[in-house]
Amino acid sequence: MIAAAGPSPFVAFGADLPMMAACTVMVLATALIVVRAIKGPTAYDRIMGMNSAGTCAVIIVALIGFATRRPDFLDLALTYAILNFLATIAILKFVKYKRLG
Amino acid sequence: MSGIAILDMSLLALIVFLAVGAIEVRNLYSAVMLSSIYSLVMACFWMTNDAWDVAFTEAAVGAGISTILLIGTLVLTGSVETVRKAVSWPALATTLLAGALLIYGTLDMPRYGDPKAPAHTHPMYGAFVRQDVPKHPSGRSAADVAAWHKANPDDKHTDFFHGHVPNQVTSVIVSYRAFDTMFETAVILTAGMALILLLRGRRGNPQRGGLI
Fold it and tell me: Does residue B206 form part of some domain?
């Protein structure tokens, strides 16, 4: 674990500019995905949106972890990735077979 | 303004957008997807607010389990409502037994408003009041309070309200975990309102209340 360098883990915009810039881009990408998921005419658009939003969330969580100098958050990102996969599989299975068992 | 605050605001805007979408969309399927995305973005928001235990729970329960549960519900419900008249006696007995046990458990609790309850007879005292951050509205500093307690070591019950209330339970719930408790209460209020809205039956335009 890398200990926080400053007195506060919440650093200003300038301190971790690359991480925060990447975060901003990922939030923009999430916004586009959300637009597609809300507008999307078919269910597949929304399944795709959910999966992509999960991926974006994984990356945002990891970036926030590094930007606030606490890379332990990476564990959380890994958990999100696993859960997202699980939910997507369940939904696709339901779409294909109309049941979960 | 820090970068985290800007990030917070954009995430919150997305969350509002998603919530409105999940309520407005008429296809239940799509509502499940949107609520799943909502949970993921909400988890990111908890993350930026330094509450990663909440973020963990939100992702595991909101995005993972409840999506699968809702999909499972969609499998079971379908579009036709069936009425079952049969009573499952073992289930009824188990429920009644569990209820009786819970009521029996409450008998050990002190009477409501009992002045002799442990929470009232063991108030907060010196060691908990001495803190580095002065919070007293009269401006009495932490050092003053500490000096007073040093001069009067026997008095354990005088309280300067140094950011604390004498009752320990109230102190923990309202002083230490105030925001946490406030939003937990908001969650319970929202759940109660949703239940009332669901259970009171539909009135008015039946087309708007349709499931799919």
Answer: no
A88 inside 8 A of chain B by CB = no
Q: Which of B30, B56, B63 sits opposite A87 (nearest CB)?
A: B63
Are residues B62 and B118 located together in one domain of the fold? no
CB contact at 8 A, A29 and B11: no
Q: What is the pLDDT along chain B (212 residues), one digit of tens a residue?
A: 567 788 888 899 999 999 998 888 777 888 888 888 898 889 888 888 777 788 888 888 888 788 888 888 887 775 444 556 678 899 999 999 999 999 999 888 888 778 888 877 877 665 555 554 444 444 556 677 677 777 877 766 555 555 556 677 777 777 667 777 788 888 889 999 988 888 876 655 555 444 43
Q: Which residues of A29-46 are buried (b: 16+ CB within 10 A; e: fewer)?
A: bbbebbeebbebeeeebb
Q: Using CB atoms, which residue from A13, A40, A83 is nearest to B63?
A: A83
Residue range of the domain that includes B16: 1-76
pTM here is: 0.59
Residue B105 lies in a domain: no
Number of domains chain B is built from? 2
